[in-house]
Specification:
By secondary structure, the chain is mainly α. Helix content is 77%, strand content 0%.
Length: 305
Amino acid sequence: MNWSGDIIIEIIPLYIISLIGYVTGRFCTIDIKTITTLTIFVISPIVFMLTISKLDFSAGAIVAPLAIFAVATALAAIVLKITSFYLDKKTPYLAALATGTNNWGYFGLPIAFAVLEPEMVAAYIMIGFGLQLFENSLGIYYVSRGTKSPKESFKNMFRYPVIYAIAAGLLLSFIDYDLPQTGEKFLTLFKGAYTVLGMMMIGLGLAALDRFRIDMPFTLSIFAIRFAIWPALACLMIWADQHIGLLGSQYYKPLLLFSVMPVGANNIAFAAQFDMYPGKASIAVLLSTLFAALYIPFAIWFFGL
């Protein structure tokens, strides 16, 4: 398979969508909070609920997201503690969110379809829901803590609908619900909107900046976590599973691909929602996404995906 050509064909439109978002944001008056609200409260819940409902309900499908959630939770807590020594007062909370999330959906899914077999794509999606669970629970708590009290931040964890959509999708999968043809079309339309709005948020976030200023300590920390620590942890998880056997080999390649994804675009959405340096988040997302254009093909070759 000419995987390098397949990847280029898949990712070029994603960069073009981000560019369109930037140009649109520069020449039109667009409130990015409105876009992020639509994505978080409407588009994402529908996509995740319907997608999960189509997956096979199995032990691996439960263990994989829970394992990723546990790793993200532990790593985010460690990063919050360490970065509090050298980042300013609120930024460590943004770093904790970025640690436990990545762009596995908007950016990663098209690549997964290009390089993985269909059953492995399903495994990749289940792995991604582990981060989705973190993002919409503890991730919201962390990013909210930058401006709100622990009690208010805890309440915010239950305000966002994606976590309920994931639960509903698991229930539909458990009862073996068959999505009707109309539902399939509905899902296809919303998947397109999900990807377009998600990648466009990167450009819109950059367009809202008064000046392009890189927070080097924050950005380098996130790069190290996303492109070094997460791949190392993925290799460690695979090594452990080869001795324990909870996941199975069908999850190994998806886990490796998942571990090399750039910073999640939803960091921009949540940063904008809670006034937590959306510009800083936008720049980190942009730089990591640009770097991923070189890093991911190398990782696919290195890991033999």
